[in-house]
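Researcher: Checking consistency across runs. Here is Magnesium chelatase again:
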Amino acid sequence: MMTRLYSSTVLGVEGVEVEVEVDFRPMAEKRTFIVGLPDTAVKESGQRVDTAIQNSGLPFQQGIFVVNLAPADLKKQGPGFDLPIALGMIAGAAEKLVDASLWCIIGELALDGTVRPVQGILPQVIEARRMGRKRIMLPHANAHEAAPVHGVEIFPVSTLQEAWELLTSAALPAPFTAPQKAGDISEANVDFDEIKGQAYARRAMEIAAAGAHNILLSGSPGSGKSMLAQRLPTILPPLNREEALETSKVHSVCGLLKRGNGLVTQRPFRAPHHTISDAGLMGGGNNITPGEVSLAHNGVLFLDELPEFRRATLETLRQPLESGHAIISRASGTMTFPCRFMLAAAMNPCPCGYLGDRRRTCICSPAQIARYRQKISGPLLDRFDLLMEVPAVDPAMLAAAPSGECSASIRERVVAARERQQKRYAGTVIRSNAALSGKALHKHCRLRPEGQAILLRAVEELALSARAYDRILKVARTIADLADSAEIQDHHLYEAVQYRTFERSLRE
């Protein structure tokens, strides 16, 4: 007797439907064969499932069970097939015909029959809906994660006994519903009003947020670089539903959605240590998983102490920053992960950190300073839209200066600028000024002859690259949007150029 059920697995950050076919033949001995390119966790399902069925008091017979996971050329990984395999084996042993065509069944089994949670539920439920499965059976602990997907009914189960009764019941209980909750990933109790002084740096952060621009901050220790970067997510526009789903899928695959939470609605803020490996930053591993660049999708990736990162690791960022995708190629296959993020980075001006400081003397030699700065390549510098120095704040100002403008107030201007961009780029794939390129850049950043002369003179005097030329145009467009100006004015260009003057000292 053969039973066919439907489950799912994850390929990259996308779900893929898998047919679970279980064939049973009564025999004097008990043997289970699992075929269909299973990994070790799937191969071990036989032992877990056998014990779980018997400990649950469900129908069990001696015989040969052949479990086929189709399509056979797709690698199956993880313990999420335990529950559908067990239900197929019970149906065979009980000689009961089961209609599971509307079901997608996912779950790991403990030896006592308890259904345990699995990673990557959200993309699997989305795929199940696309394939026409109307009912989702999954672990109770994953119910909130699946709840935001519209168009399917969620039926959480806690035990194998409960799952069997649900599958064979003539009258289904009411499906699970839950109020949508924001994931608490990257939530921080910080605000821009905690930063005193640094008006120039605050303005740069506002421009970066308004146009989704990459920004590099340089300054001596304690000047406030990290404080500024950590508060960048607080002035970004809230995630819309599409962005929330995209972000949540990545965090779901990595198991970072906390139990009891639905979609991630806070923009991610990822700050990996400078000792991170290439695979940790970009993604990889034996079972290829997303890296920090993908976990920062639709949010901020902050690299503190930028020159302390290995140069080879930093160079891997160049292609994702341009394309918005991280492509990981291994012998086992190629995966593509989304990684459209804002890059914020901070660095000291020299190894000791006090070059140019008014209160402390730098002890670094010119050769040490050159080696330190050469760790950041010219092509990577070109991918920052704003580069600026953050001077140390006078202690007297810290004590006397009033609190700065709060994040909510800044966010209002940022959201207004983003709305102007969305209206301008309606009907295209462009989401922000930072994504402008080619014909779209020249169409939407057209300059008057006077402005063109200003920009060409700046590029020549600062010895900037063609890519830096485009970056200045994009930043000027954002400054104009913040000012609600349809055209880029000369003073917008002058301000945009100021955010590239620091580049010359980094290249010297």
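Researcher: Does this match what you'd expect to see?
Model: One thing to look at in this run: Residues 235 and 408 are 7 Å apart (CA to CA).
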